[in-house]
Amino acid sequence: MVTIRYYKSATAKEFETHWVNNVGVFLKEKDFPLEQLLDLRFFKGDVLGEEIDTINGYFLDITEGEIEIFHGNTMPGVPLVYVPYIVAALSFVAAIVLAPDIPNLGNQKQRSSTNKLGASNNEANVNGRTDDIFGTVTKHTPPLWQVPYRIGVDNQETEVLLMAIGRGKYDIDTSNIYDGFTPYEKIPKAQVSIYEPGKYPDGGTTTPDQSIGATIEEPIGIYRESNDLNASELLPPNDLTLGEGAIWSINETGTSAVLTLDNAASLEVDLTEYFIVTQDLKLIDTFVKDITVTATTTLYRFFVDFTGTNDVSKVFNHITAIDISGEYEITARTATTVTIDTVAGLGIGNAGVLLTDVHNVTSATTSLDFNTIDSDILSYTWYETFVNPIYSDPITQGVTTTYNPDVGQIFDNTIGPITIYGGSDKILINLTSASGFYKKVGTNNVIVSVDLEFVVEDLDSVATTTTPVTYTSNRGNITKSVYQTVEIPIPYTNATVYGRRLTNRDLSDGVSNVDKVEWTLLYSFTELGAVDFGDVTLMHCVIPSNSQSRLIKQRKTNLDVTRKITQYLGGDTFGPAESYATDDFSQILIHTALDPKIGRLSLDQINQDGFISLATEIQTYFSDAEMIRFGYDFDTVEMSYEDMFTMICNAVNCIPYAQNGVYDAFFEKAQTTSAMQITCRNKIVDTETREDIFFKEYDGVELSFRNELTGVSETVYNPSDRTANNPDRQELLGCVTEVQATKRAARIRNKQIYNTVSVEFDTDEFGRMIIPGQRIDSPDGTRFVHHTGNTDGYYVYSGEVVEVNGLVVELSEPVEFRFVEDHYIYFTNTEGENSEMILCTAGANDFEVILATTPAEAIYEGYARDKTKFTFCSEQLRESIALIPQTIEFKLDDGKETNTISSINYSAMYYDGDLI
Fold this sequence. Notes:
- The protein is mainly β.
- Among the domains are: 89 residues, Ubiquitin-like (UB roll); 101 residues, no CATH class; 161 residues, no CATH class; 116 residues, no CATH class; 169 residues, no CATH class.
- The protein contains ten helices and 60 strands.
- Strands 23-15-16-22-21-17-27 form a seven-stranded antiparallel sheet, with no helix packed on it. Strands 6, 9, 10, 39, 42 and 43 form a six-stranded antiparallel sheet that branches. Strands 46-52-59-60-51-47 form a six-stranded mixed sheet.
- Strand 53 and strand 54 form a beta hairpin.
- Helix 6 runs antiparallel to helix 7 and helix 6 packs antiparallel against helix 8.
- It is elongated and about 145 Å long.
């Protein structure tokens, strides 16, 4: 029993203690990923002790003492040394399928909209993995790297987006950038700025690498949309009044005044339903006449000329307009009157009807018209002067200021206060009038302009900052919508903001108002300063709301991209870094393996030239370049490199494996001969099991893939008429074309039909040489072999060569020639692979055969290494021993290595749909 202390970090005190039979058992139980396995360091006793030599693999058999295990990259001052020979002793040395079945990544957390196959909106990427796109991905929906916000530009609602296309560089055709299915280039005033790694939007200073329209000048930073604001109208102060159509008169007695609605009957208004006793009432822009003043009163003095000759000596009276606007408590009310408490008294007596015009003297002499029904005023021609009207100069007329005296309820037309995110540099306030902002006077549409104000209040003191805003009609077309954005700097760390409308609504008779001002959105903004976004391509977009963009039902910015990678040229040489746009899976395999963020492997850990040869082999076999294409957005942190490697291979009908510490892949296709043979000399006794498959679990295939033409999931059915009752439903991740999916579905269906046997057995270390998917010969070890004297039995023989004399070969097992069939023998070469199949005839006894031709490679019969193995049977039985290995599982028990081989019968019918 060995005691192992395993430290996840060499600098941490915490460790796991394991008591196991040997080191190999511990490593197998932990099941480290390859990159972690290669990084392990082993020490006797403690980290200051002797480091254990791992080159020959003997350390796996250590069964006593104490061993400290660390990850080398966590050990300060200790050089990182990979120990590839660890792989030779563990599961990675055996030809192990990294994942026998493609991982069901469709059930994992896919973050990006791209892999969600048609999600309707771009999504935020919060603490998520930056998209790693490889190959060609159409309709890619990049994640948001900034809260999308909306501003008003030329009275159009305009959305601003900052998105990360993905890590690295991409080949992008700007004509294939879309909002939904509409190209950005077709949307008037839309803008796109694309920045490759090392650049970012900085307010228009840095020139983008690609663009549509002018460079976007909107600053990037931290935008936060307030959740405390519901879109609300900034109501005018006179919103809760009866309007100018109401004609009021007022009479005061002492400290009470009675307001009478003179036309209550025609308005069909009952004031008891409108006002409540003890609540307050508001008088707005309310002026009354006062005839009690003397001739020396200097302000708002009016006079009447009895003779009509403008003779100032004929002054009949002097009237002052008194402003009684304000708030008063209601003490009583009837259907037509409201009594208010005037507190100290207004001194207006029987003031009569409220005035609507007040004049300031500025211009020529003329008569003035008053908009009132007061008979005392309407009976005369009125004039106005600054001071005493008794002088000889001409009477000068004042400019009329029109008021809308009104009586209404008290209400607070302020929106807010709304808390601003602490430390913000500024806020953005969006004001909108979706139906336009104007008033209709008669048949004329009239421009409207109102005053608003927004007040920012410091929560840490009594300081405030007021920002006045003038909000006007859309001057381009006054009946069109208005969308204005107000930016306000925030000088305080902690603050709130509130806003209100200051200008009344025109409630005059004959006026129809379309003047609603809505405060719809509030954003806070914090600057980022200089930022390093890393190896990421960014896209800054501006989408105005106009007739074209509003046609888009599903707002989703998407584009077609092809990742630029470093091209492998062969012979361990490469082209320029990240300059080669390709969807060739072999180039992608090489790039991802060497990528320091993904595979983190070196050239001696991958079969790079073999990958290039695989691409040629696949393309030649299918006579179709489409069959080597791959495209996928790797967007989840839950996928290991092994998963990634497996997915890429699976998309192009290759089976991934690792052998002698090197990642490799095998292209599965029709194979007329077996690559190697597993004889009784390699199998462990009594481990072989065979199961005849009579009942099929599935009767069809439904294979989904992401069609590059549509960017959404589509399904290939086999049988195509969808008659399957229990189809095998799979998703072929990374597949981009229907032809790829159709051929794969045919393979899956053919295996459902023609897979009749499942075989499993254990082998010795020879099992390391087996490659998943590569056809092997393996006689049925569950049947007894027919020899002379047996009436039943199995006429397939295997063993090793004992002696060679010319063309006469002595075998370790007796064989029998029967019937008139041709019989053939296979020998293994020094690599354990099958040599050519050789016709043979019977020798002098059952242990000898005579070869028709000499083997291409010499047969070994000595003792320095394993003798040459053989299998012998008739031509008709040859196909019956052919298997396709599916998985190879490594085991290490008390230092003894075994490999469990799981296989299915080989059938050329599996590949019937390949070349159709």
